[in-house]
Amino acid sequence: RNAQNFPLDLAAVEAPSING
């Protein structure tokens, strides 16, 4: 993954993970 996309990509993956 690109450094620029990392924070956005990470948030997109963690959001549904935390919400279930």
Automatic annotation (TrEMBL):
Superkingdom in the source lineage: Eukaryota
Keyword Plastid: yes
Keywords on record: Chloroplast, Plastid
Protein name: PsbA
Organism: Tribulus terrestris
